[in-house]
Specification:
The complex is a heterodimer of chains A (299) and B (273). With 299 residues, chain A is an all-alpha fold. Chain A is built from 13 helices and no strands. Chain B has 273 residues and is an all-alpha fold. The chains are: A mainly alpha (299), B mainly alpha (273). Chains A and B meet through helix 1, helix 3, helix 4, helix 5 and helix 6 of A and helix 1, helix 2, helix 3, helix 4 and helix 5 of B.
């Protein structure tokens, strides 16, 4: 827009009006990140702050920490199942809803409603749906499977050794796949109908049209979904707390940070985990913001 | 709409209905369990419909959760209003006035939307303690400040999309910046305000992490209270289900009545607005 659009008086006013917000964000985001970095390089352990220099010790200890290894493994399992599940399901739902069927709006609203609910509510309900009790105490999905004569599907859900995180990811897919559906639907709606028609005239069948025309055109949507869902999985926290509480086999970095800091008072270590989380998120998000702003300028 | 390949698409209703059932299962369990009488509640019959409508579980859950439902409302409403107001003002200034450094400031603000809050949690708690901002006001303040990036983004995108002539005309008529904002932009900003208010209301209502570190037990908002209720061995699961429904109801109602705006907020949150 015009640099000279506002008169000088207006420009000063603009600075006065926007400064508090910018200052607040700069302090609460960037100063606080710097402060966290400083805590992560300290020996702080206990109620009173202790900024004694400790170098990278907190980080080095994490890399040989058994619990942190479990966390990284759990995050990878969760990310894999959650991201792939939400993208595949969201894409299929979007394609089905893009066929011009009656009741499309109803289905769309239905698939999206879990987004309005908190992870805590989802977790509390899924905790009972994924009840691992056996025998006469069987309930939840396992009971439903037995009604449907699908007993072979019964399993221990989040209490399955080593792979419990995959069950947590199922609840997360329930919550978030509607969101990927919405992203894909918006993408599908922006593909001009002539492209499909041209391909049809050239003799392509419907599957080929999706495979060779629509899917490649949707790759920016897939990229956004990968990044948004991926960074969400790095941050997953409340959902696990609500389903399983603080349990070692289902631990993730976000829970470890919270527990070691506020229950264990290992502030230095907690801050180090927070910073590692931030770095992993930044690796995904910073290129994404740059890419988005660049395409915006081009438009 | 052009050719959407309409031939024999009706079989698609089968997978769609199956998926609809999948999405409704948790809601079904909350409802049927919530409306059962204490006598009928049994994990072995959890999929059965209730014999009539009973409010025992809701009464019990409400008596346990009403203080925290109130806490949530008291914290969320001002947080949503203030961060939306700030976002509108910031969005206007950023959209219509390119000051030097705006290209650096804007992405820096945006990044604040995505950070894992674990990376600022220790300083946040320390700061609030040092400043003596305890409990709900502190929680509201956190939601306001960490909400600024998304509210600013949404309004900036909206204001940037408006035709420049609209503002030029007002300027020729002698209106100053605030006059343009108040008399021209604000009246047409209502839809964006709805989007942003809904978004802020929902995310602050559903937040758990800030709430659990910034509030003590008399000031717990609903998410923390519900989680603690679910974690205790004393409170029966049927009451937990009723409590979950109570906790979900405000945002669910907002979604049901204003879903269109909710979706726009959702897309803005992924920078796709």
């Amino acid at each position: 827009m015009l640099k000279t659009f506002f008169r000088d008086k207006d420009r000063y006013l603009s600075i006065i009006l926007i400064s508090p917000s910018i200052l607040a964000v700069l302090i609460f985001v960037y100063v606080f990140i710097g402060w966290s970095v400083r805590v992560s390089l300290s020996k702080w352990k206990g109620i009173t702050a202790d900024y004694t220099w400790n170098g990278l010790d907190n980080y080095i200890q994490l890399f040989s920490d058994q619990r942190f290894h479990v966390d990284v493994r759990n995050t990878l399992i969760f990310t894999g199942v959650f991201v792939i599940g939400s993208i595949v399901l969201g894409f299929l739902l979007a394609v089905m809803l893009d066929q011009g069927l009656k009741g499309e709006g109803f289905f769309r609203s239905l698939f999206l409603f879990p987004m309005a609910i908190s992870y805590i509510v989802t977790g509390v309900v899924w905790r009972w749906l994924m009840n691992p009790a056996e025998g006469v105490r069987t309930s939840g999905f396992n009971l439903l499977f037995s009604y449907l004569h699908l007993d072979f599907l019964q399993n221990a859900w989040h209490t399955t050794p080593n792979w419990g995180m995959a069950a947590i990811a199922l609840a997360a897919i329930w919550q978030m796949s509607g969101y990927t559906m919405a992203l894909y639907l918006a993408g599908l709606r922006s593909i001009p109908g002539e492209l499909r028609e041209a391909a049809q005239i050239d003799g392509a069948n419907e599957l080929q049209i999706y495979r060779y025309i629509i899917l490649p055109l949707l790759s920016p949507v897939t990229l956004s979904a990968l990044i948004i869902l991926g960074h969400m999985s790095l941050k997953v926290f409340d959902l696990i707390i609500a389903i399983a509480g603080k349990q070692y086999p289902l631990d993730v970095p976000a829970i470890y940070m919270w527990q070691t800091t506020f229950d264990g008072l290992f502030y230095g270590r907690g801050a180090a985990i927070g910073i590692l989380l931030l770095i992993s998120v930044a690796v995904l998000i910073i290129p994404y913001i740059r890419y988005t702003l660049k395409t915006e300028v081009r438009q | 709409m052009t050719n959407r390949f309409r031939l024999g698409k009706n079989w698609l209703y089968l997978p769609l209905i199956l998926m609809a059932v999948f999405y409704l299962i948790p809601l079904y369990v909350m409802l049927v369990t919530g409306f059962k009488s204490f006598a009928e509640v049994d994990l072995k019959t959890m999929w059965n419909l209730p014999n009539g409508i009973h409010f025992d579980n809701f009464v019990e859950a409400f008596s346990k959760l009403s203080p925290s439902l109130w806490n949530s409302f008291v914290m969320v409403i001002p947080a949503a209003l203030i961060s939306s107001g700030l976002g509108s003002l910031n969005g206007f200034i950023l959209a219509k006035w390119k000051f030097r450094g705006a290209d650096i400031i804007f992405p820096l603000i945006l990044f604040g939307m995505f950070i894992p809050y674990q990376s600022i949690l220790i300083p946040l708690v320390q700061f609030m303690n040092a400043a003596g901002i305890k409990g709900l006001p502190g929680l509201a303040l956190a939601h306001i400040i960490y909400g600024i990036p998304i509210t600013t983004l949404t309004f900036r995108n909206y204001y940037a999309s408006l035709p420049q002539e609209l503002l030029e005309a007002a300027k020729i008529d002698g209106a100053d910046m605030l006059g343009i904002y108040r008399h021209i932009l604000l009246p047409i900003s209502l839809p964006s305000f709805v989007v942003v208010l809904i978004w802020q209301f929902t995310s602050a209502w559903n937040d758990f992490l800030f709430a659990v570190v910034l509030t003590g037990n008399t000031q717990w908002p609903i998410t923390v209270a519900l989680n603690n209720m679910a974690g205790s061995q004393i409170i029966a699961w049927n009451v937990q289900m009723a409590g979950s429904l109570l906790a979900a109801l405000p945002t669910l109602l907002v979604y049901i009545f204003l879903g269109r705006y909710f979706l726009r907020g959702l897309l803005a949150g992924s920078l796709k607005g």
